[in-house]
Amino acid sequence: MGENIYDLTSKLAPFLDRHLVFPLMEFLSVQKTYDETDLRHARLDILSNTNMVDFAMDIFTTLYEGKEVSHELIEQRSKVVSQLNSFQEETDPIFKIFAEKEVQKQLQSSRDQQSLMNYLVENHGFRPEMLDTLYTFAKFQYECGNYSAAADYLYLYRGLVPVTDKNFVVSLWGKLASEILTQNWENALEDLNRLKEAIDSGASNSPLQVLQQRTWLIHWSLFVFFNHPKGRDLIIEMFLYQPSYLNAIQTMCPHVLRYLATAVIINKTSRRQAMRDLVRVIQQEMYAYADPITEFVANLYVDFDFDAAQEKLKQCATVLENDFFLVACQKDFIENARLMIFELFCRIHQCISINMLAEKLNMTPKDAEKWIVNLIRQAKLDAKIDSKEGHVVMGTQAVSPYQQLIDKTKNLSFRTQILIPLKGCCYTEE
Amino acid sequence: MSSRFFMSDSESESSSDSEEYNKEPVGISAFTFSDEEEDQKRIVRSAKEKRYEELNNIIKNIKNYKKNRDMSSLLTSNIYKSLCIFCSCLSFEDLCKAYQKALNVVKKEEGGKIPGFFLRCLVDLEDYINQVWEDKDGRFGSSHILFFLELLLVSCVGFKCVYVVIDLFLFIFNRKNMSKNNAKSLTTLRQKLRKYTRDFEEEIRLFRENPDAEDSDVEKDEVDEDDDDSVMDDDEPLGPAAFKKEPSIPKEEKKVVESESDLDSDESDWPSDSDETSSSSEDDRKIEGRTRETFLKKKVDDLEGEKTKKEKIRDKRKTKKEKGESDDDTKDGWQSVSKKAAIPREKPKMFGKDDEVTIPAVVKKLSEIMAARGKKGTDRKEQIELLHELFNIAKENTLGLPVQIKIQFNLIMSIYDYNPSVSDPMKVDFWEKILVKIDELLDMLAITPELAIGEHITEESESLEKPPYRVRGCVLTIVERMDEEFIKLLKACDAHSNEYVVRLRDEIQTCKIIDKLLQYEEEHGMPSDICRIYLRKIEHLYYKYDKKAAKQVKGELPEAEVTSLNEMDRLCKYIFVRDNTDRLRTRAVLCHIYHMSLHDKWYEARDLMLMAHLQETIQHSDLPTQILYNRTMVQLGLCAFRHGNVKEAHNALLDIQSGGRAKELLAQGLLPQRQYERTTEQEKQEKQRQIPFHQHINLEMLECVYLVSAMLIEIPYMAAHEFDARRRMISKSFHHQLKNSERQSLVGPPESMREHVVAASKAMRNGNWNLCRSLLLNDKMNAKVWDLFHEAEKVRLMLGRKIQEESLRTYLFTYSHVYDSISLVTLSEMFELPYGTVHAIISKLIINEEIMASLDEPTSCLVMHRTEPSSLQSLSLQLADKLYNLVENNERILDQKPFFSRGMQLLRRNLKSDCCSREAVTVIVRRPSGMKGERDEKTEETESEKGISLWDTKQLLYAGSLSFLFVYLPKSKSLRKCWGPSGDVIQAGPKRLKNFVYIFFFNEMLRSIWYLI
User: In what residue span(s) does the PCI domain sit (chain A) (predicted)?
Assistant: First the structure.
């Protein structure tokens, strides 16, 4: 149980939809960090306001073995079923319309929702009120846990309502949740971007509302970013380099920094710059939020305290293991964190003993040596191993002033050469 | 003398009838005088006689003064005053002179014994001067006496004694109404007399002890003296023995009698007066006793008749006096009640005896009183009293609280009104009164919950009688005004005096009132009002250090405990949400930040500051808010410093400290202006903006913190960039201090705070951290600066550590070229830092490429790489940098290619369309003087047939050697005068050129121009 001080579920949950919390709950029960019955209670609570009565009943029976399922649940079930039937009757004509091949074609070809709407109204007896029906039905389906159906309906709905509609943004949220819950990451990312656009352009909302929505979006997007293959780049792009989202994180949910830090660490391509910015943010928010991952970054890049970083790295492993979003990238993280430490080491030192290095990297000396050899072979490291002393000797990085001067000027003359033809073209154009 | 003549003339003109009327008798007396003089000439006398006579004459004159004083105590004329004093001085001086002359004779004849008559004269003179001096009763005179005197004056010109007589009249009786000039004369006379009598002190004493003895002596010597010396010549014959025994009594009596009689009847006095003069002249002539007797007999009759008259008059006067007294009493009474005086006058009007005191009546009266408010002739004090009275009446008649509230409200307003000037503080007693009144008002409001008070309620819709009471008025405004007055009062006191402390005690009461109102408003008020009163509360709260809150921040107290921090949080958050005016919110934010900084909530304070985005907008707000912003920034900086965030501290304090105007920026005092003098108006305004003393931030501490922060940043930076040509200054004022100390030929041990910091900086430059620390952290500095922090010990520890770290950095920068390698262990011993810290610092230096070195892990050594360039190398590196910039610039130009080519195309199209392409594009290039320094202003006109020299010109423009570029647009064929920034007109070539487009060499400008084309 000692590990769950770093568990963020309780912090994340307020910003998530009921349905989105379920996967987290499932994960927690697998990890067994919390008491199983407590979790079941929590789940029952969550379900109480949804239409997933069957699911609730299941949990109820496991929770209170031998007890009768409460009347409320049974009543609710019959109510939900009758509602479902009536909705289906209502929506039947709508789906008939959309089932027609012509309409399908039109749907795919048409981009403008207004013309599409006109087309449907004129040719297929579609009534504008039907849209609302569609929307409520989608909501109902979602509440019932029928996410893929909800996603389909909302797709249709979105295609037909104008952007200014009051339900438009809500439908986007619904769509995103449905896509996440059906694990359709490609669509989810698309919806995410669409929603982001809608929020950013939402001038009518008060700043506070926008902030709230952004915070939700940040949390929801975690599902997408840590599951979508491109997500790890995108999360940095969105959280770190879009000031409005960074502000939202800093003010509302500094705990998201954990995911951001992890993403930066496991991102190989643009790490340096991102790391510098991340360190700045982490330093700023030190007082508000700290966990092993952010502390690891701070130790390494602020204090250059390798021993402490090493300690933190060990803690990080357990934290990652228990985090729903990060569990998948645990291996990546450890590998990259090691590399980071080593890289820093090499930049600072000209001679390192392998034993010490092994200790710092949390490896046996033999493994460490092998690891270093691999790095040298892959030309990632300019170094030689002195096996007599058991040292790694770095290649000299010092640059002589001559070299500096040449580097600087060589580049210049080249660039000026490029300019000449450009200038010339101005003349010749005449 | 001329004045005397003039005066007599002018007066005689004005009173010619009376002059004629009185002419004869005066003429007679004049003749008698002249006779006497003739007599004197004929008689041959000894020197002694001569001298004595002279003396006697003068003495007689002086005596006459006294008599005349009695006689003409009615005189009020101011014109005579200077004259009379002058003359009395003269006559006294005459006396002195005459005595001086007679001195030889006296010595000879009497063996140095001073003649008794002379002594007596002196004594009398002294007495009467004292009397006059002490006499404070003013007397009203009548013009008749004046006329008489004028007559005398006119007819007796030339007779000194008469002058003197007249002068003395005036002198004696105008003492009361004397102008300053006269008073002065009197003083001189008195002083002279005193000085003079000092010589005769002994004799005078003796004389005073035994005046009779002297008298008899004198009588033996001089028969005439008897008459003269027996002071009251007229009364003497009546009872000489009695009078001789007690000469002072009749004197006084006579005086009283005469003065009284004078007051009422001049005519009755007039004859007696003439008698006296004539009698005295008779004395002079030494008439036989017989004649004298007959004269006297007649006189006695006269006198007796007069006496009865006088007695009557005395009675009359007595009654009159009593009357006067009673008059005075009523007058006094009137004066003392004058504030209330109007009440008896108003009272019947307000509440005639039979009138019932009803609410409408009271309200009507109230509005009557208030109608006078602000009018020119209104007695503000009286108004206050009136209202006070009205309030009491309302209270006595139990008209209900609403009425009382209304009156109280108006009463408070009129007390505010009492002080006509807004900038001056109100009087202390009024202030104390108003505190009480407001307190009462709030209490009354608190116990009548069904009452609505507000500015939105009109006079018509007021309801004072029935329960949903409605009263017009704004309590909030009153309390706000009270708060402002309180600040004004404080500012008016000397901050270091006890007075200030006493006044400051009222803050408790002020806060109490604000709290009361706050409570009331929370229940009844609208959000905007609540915001206002909250802000008032906040402004009384934010600068105070709460020990409990500080403990809470440290976690020693539970979060739930109510401290000023929680309170601030609650109040401010309410304002953040509810306030519609930006000003309140801004002020609340600033106060909140200030308070949090004060209690070391650094992160929260910083975040709030960042989130509020005040930096961009603050210059648009009002001055007090800007001052508050400055104060907040300072406090934030201090907080950052306490937390060891030196850089943040420096940044926060930089703006305040950089101009050396911290005092002014924090509104803690006026700085003398160098360039121009303030007008009084400006000074007044500035004084109004000042912050009261108890809210001041210690400027020395502020400066010290700033300088120390600057030192910690600047010294390592200077060491690192010693050879850098482009080294910039981080802190100007710090450099200023350094330079100042370098300029001194002899630097003594540091005394002031600044000297300490400078000395510490020098020590740090050499890596001598121990000296540096001891220079900053010693008893002197503790007393001056560090002990002012709430957690002084913590700050000192932090500072000591910072000094160690920064010294290490400085040391490495400065001396790294001396080392080939250096052991980290040695460094950690040298700087008494833990190994880990040294390692971390050095690692950071290496990573940031601040030093060219790397660590050798097995030996834990820092190995230097010899890469520090020689001076030639560094110069060539700089050159390379500049070249780099040039190329960058060139590329930037090409980045604008879209614009450029578009412009060119347009231009070309224009060129083609215009047939006279020779003049198509005229580029005037002007090189302003002083740009390069060597060339004078010169105009180059470049005409190009093809108009394509533009590109080259533009290049020149970019290179910075040209200032403008003008392009003619042939198509529009319009010419506008173009002015260069230096003010000279750009001459257009041919007249047909009608349109210049003028370009600065800034990229942005250029861009817009190409759009124009």
Answer: 224-399
